[in-house]
Amino acid sequence: MTMQAALRPVPADPAMPALGRTVAIASGKGGVGKTWFATTLAHALARRGRRVLLFDADLGLANVDVQLGLQPRHDLGAVASGRVGMAQAVERFAPGGFDVLAGSSGSGALSTLDAAGVERLLVGLGGLAAKYSHVLLDLGAGLDWPVRRMAAWADTMLVVATEEPTSLTDAYAALKLHAADRPGGDARLVVNQVTSPAAGARTAAALGQACTAFLGRAPALAGYVRRDPHVGEAIRRQAPLLTRHPNCPASQDVEELAASLVGE
Questions:
Q1: What is the pTM of this model?
Q2: Is 239 exposed, middle or buried (CB count within 10 Å of its CB: 0-12, 13-18, 19+)?
Q3: For the chain, which domains are there?
Q4: Backbone angles phi, psi at 92, to 5 degrees
Q5: Residue 2's pLDDT is what?
Q6: In the prediction, which pLDDT does 113 show?
Q7: Is the dihedral of CA 34, 36, 38, 41 positive or negative?
Q8: Residue 110 — very low, low, confident or very high, per pLDDT cuts 50/70/90?
Q9: Which of 66, 71, 142, 195 yields a CA-CA distance of 20 to 30 A from 166?
Q10: Mean pLDDT of 72-96
Q11: Looking at residue 78, what is its pLDDT?
Q12: Mean pLDDT of 85-101
């Protein structure tokens, strides 16, 4: 086995169903690279010929537009207030080949949306979804009711976790609530910032054992993403990693993960 092959993440289970049209990307806690993963996965899917919409569903601390260096004309706050329709707020992110519906960071109106307001957003998003191969929802960190509702609404939930014990605890909580909100739903695990494939495998196994013992089944493993200094550099530059460093380890891992999610 070559060194490059040895560093490759374990491929996802080929028996997994195809990725749903609507995909919620959750974490349970902040600081695990969820938004970066969401933007990079959107880019990777677009590079595979999919038409993708990235929806910044963090209703209080949105930052997809900041990471991408995008200055949207409209955002989710304008949609929620009725100033523009949802389709009007969609922006093209040309460097990545996908569309973005930006959130509204620090908007008290969005962070306190009631149940009816969240449902209106989901109805609008459902109407937009028909135009896309995949709609990715970058959910807010935490397990508040709007986060749970949007995760349950999506066809697939990807939970991003790291090797840190606190991250695993919060990922388990997200999976537990999703199992209650959507019994039998499609929930999968992404282990980010792994120090090695072996460490990533141990992380996935530990979480899987807890889920099997207390929830009755373990989440499917979507894949690993290696810790890579190029990620932080790309974020600071507000540039897509797959454009700036297309051959770095993290880029290779997300590309491979995207391919496995769509059955390629």
A1: 0.91
A2: middle
A3: 18-261 (3.40.50.300)
A4: -85, 125
A5: 33
A6: 75
A7: negative
A8: low
A9: 66
A10: 88
A11: 82
A12: 94
- pLDDT beyond 80 at 107: no
Distances (CA, A) of 33 to 37, 67, 162, 197: 6, 11, 9, 18
